[in-house]
Design goal:
- The structure is a homodimer.
- With about 350 residues, the first copy, chain A, is of the alpha/beta class.
- Chain A folds into 2 domains: about 1-150 and about 320-339, Rossmann fold, CATH 3.40.50.720; about 155-315, Dihydrodipicolinate Reductase, domain 2.
- The first copy, chain A, has helices spanning about 10-30, 55-65, 75-80, 100-110, 120-125, 125-135, 155-160, 175-185, 190-200, 210, 215-230, 250-255, 315-339, and strands at about 1-10, 35-40, 45-50, 85-90, 115, 140, 165-170, 240, 260-270, 275-285, 295-300, 305-315.
- In chain A, the strands form 2 sheets. A 6-stranded mixed sheet of chain A has the order 3-2-1-4-5-6, sandwiched between helices.
- The longest helix of chain A is centred in the last third of the chain and has 22 residues, at about 315-339.
- At the A-B interface, helix 1, helix 7, strand 11, strand 12 and helix 13 of A face helix 1, helix 7, strand 11, strand 12 and helix 13 of B.
Chain lengths: ~350, ~350
Amino acid sequence: MKLRFTIVGFGSVGQGVAEVLERKKDELEKMGFDFEVVGIADSSSSFIDENGVNLVEAIKRKRETGTVGKEEITAIEMIKEIPHDIMIEVTPTNVESGEPGLSHILTAFENGRHVVTSNKGPLALHFRKLVSLAKEKGLHFRYEACVGGAMPVINLTKELLAGNEIKGIVGIFNGTCNYILTRMASEQLPYEHVLSEAQELGIAEMDPSYDVEGIDTALKLTILANTIFDLNISFKDVNRKGITEINPEALILAQEHGYTIKLVGYVLKNGDKIDIGVSPMLVPLGHPLSVGGTLNAAAIYTDLASEITITGKGAGSLETASAILSDLISIARSLRVEK
Amino acid sequence: MKLRFTIVGFGSVGQGVAEVLERKKDELEKMGFDFEVVGIADSSSSFIDENGVNLVEAIKRKRETGTVGKEEITAIEMIKEIPHDIMIEVTPTNVESGEPGLSHILTAFENGRHVVTSNKGPLALHFRKLVSLAKEKGLHFRYEACVGGAMPVINLTKELLAGNEIKGIVGIFNGTCNYILTRMASEQLPYEHVLSEAQELGIAEMDPSYDVEGIDTALKLTILANTIFDLNISFKDVNRKGITEINPEALILAQEHGYTIKLVGYVLKNGDKIDIGVSPMLVPLGHPLSVGGTLNAAAIYTDLASEITITGKGAGSLETASAILSDLISIARSLRVEK
C-alpha cells in the first residue's frame, strides 16, 4: 500500500521533513514503507502533484523564491480536495489562537486524513477537542515532535513503559534557557550578557520572551500532561516563572552545595490532584536532569521502572523531522495491520 | 484470548515478575491483556496449575521453604509438556556455558513457545543461534531486561528511533561500578575502601570480579551490539578493562578539568568496521552520561535524532520485572494483531 502525504507549512521543519523523506526513501521502501508526497503548502502558495512532488526541487524553489509553488489552492483546500492519507502539519506555533494549525488539523480530521504534527499551539489550547475528533473519526493523531524535538518522551512513556503507572514527569524542555543557565554557571556571567551572546549565536530569538519566560516550556508540559494523564489543561492555566531573575551568584552558591539551577517543567500526580508548573529549580549535579548546553531532558517517575530519564536535542530541523518520521512509520505500521 | 505463561527461575527476578503480574492483573485485563501463569519452575522443583498458579502463595512458599513446589517435573519437562504461549526465562546468568538458560530457551522454541528473558548468558554467547531459531519457528523473542534493567534501550533504539541510522551506542551498563566511581570521586576515597563499603551495602558481591572487571558490561554490550548491528559477537571477543586500577587522584584530576571517570561500554560503526570495547573513560561533567550513583545510562548516536540518552536503574527486581512486563505486553499486542 502506498501512503500519500501532504506537508502543510514549509519553513525549516517542513523542509527538514521533505529532506529526510527524500534521503530515506529507498531505505524506507525496503522496510515496506512506501509513500509519496502529493502536495506541499506554505502560507501563500501550494504545489500539487498526485504522482509525487519532486522534493529536491520543492526545497530548492522555496529557498530561491520564498514560496513552494504558484497554484491557486490554499492549504485548507489542499487538505480537503487532494486525496491523501496523512497530513503533516508543521506551521509555526501560535500561542494565542492556535491558528492556522488548528483549522488545518480539524479540516484534516473532517476529511478523513490522519495527522502528524510538530505544532504545539493547537494541542496546548484545544487538546481534548482535537484528540476526541480524531478518535471519533477513527484516525491516527501523533505529535511526538511537539515535545522535546528528537527526544521521544511521549512514545517512551505510552509505549515502552506500558504496564507502569506514571506518577509524574519532570523535565527541561527548553534548550535556549538551558544554554543560558549552563553558560551563566560555567562562566559566572550575568543573564543579560549570556542572553546577548545566545542571540548572536541564533540560540535565542531577538524577542526572547517566549523562551525565557517559560511559555515554550509550559506549552510542551501541557501537551505531555494532557497526553499522559488524560487531562484537558490549557497552557494558560499553568503557573510559570522564567529565568530572567536568576543571577550568577545564585548559580555559584548552588554549585558550591553540589547543585545547579535549571528551568524545570513538572507535572506530578498526587492522588486525584495534579501539580503542574514551570519554575527554576535546584537539580543535584550528577542527576540525569543536570545536563548542560541546549539539551532537553525528561525524568519519568513510575511505580515499577522507578525513574527513567531521556535526554536529547530539543530543537533542530532534522531532529524534529526524526520525531515526525517515527510517527509516520508508526502510523504506517498500524495501517498495515488494520487492513 | 488468554495467554498462558510459565516462569522458569524463581529467584528475585522471577518473584518480582510474579509479584508484578499479580499486582497488575486487573489493570492489564482492562487493557485487553488477559493471562494466566500455568507453571513455575526453580532449580529443584516446579509447581503446575493449568487453571492458573496462585502467585501470592507461590512466592510465600518459595520464601518459606526455599522451593516453589514439589512436583516431579523439571523445568525442561514443564517447557515441553505443559501447554503455554510464553516462557519467561529468568534463571541466573552463566557466562561460561549459558546454561541452564540456553537449554530452556532452545527447548521453548522447539516446542512453539515465545520467549521473554532477562538471562544474559545465552544471548551473549549464542546470539545468532537463538535469534535464528526464533525466526525460523515464527516465534517472538524479547530480552529488554538483559540490558540496563528498567532502561528500555533496545526497544527505544529499534522502535522509537525507527528510520534513524544508528551510528553507535556508548553507555554505563553496570550500577556497581558506577556507584564505586561516584563515591571515590565525591569522597576522595581509595577503590578498596569504597568496594568494601559497597559490599556491606549489598551493592557489590563478595566476589566483585564479575562487575569490577567489566564482564557484566561486556555481556550487555554484546547483546546490544548484536541486536542493533545484526552481528554475532560473543562477549569473549570484547576487549575489556575494569575499574580496579583507578585511584582517587585520577578522579580528582579529571574533576579539576571538568570531567569524571566512568566505566564505559561502547560500540561504534565506522563504515564496515565495528569498534567495541569496555574501558574506563573520561566523561564531561554535564554530559548526559555523567550520571552518578548506581544509575545506568546509554547514549545512542543517530543520523537524524543526533544523540539520545536514556538513564535508569540498571538493577532491582521490580525494575527488571518492568522490562519483562513491557516485553510481554508487546508480544500480546502483536499476537492480537497476528490472529
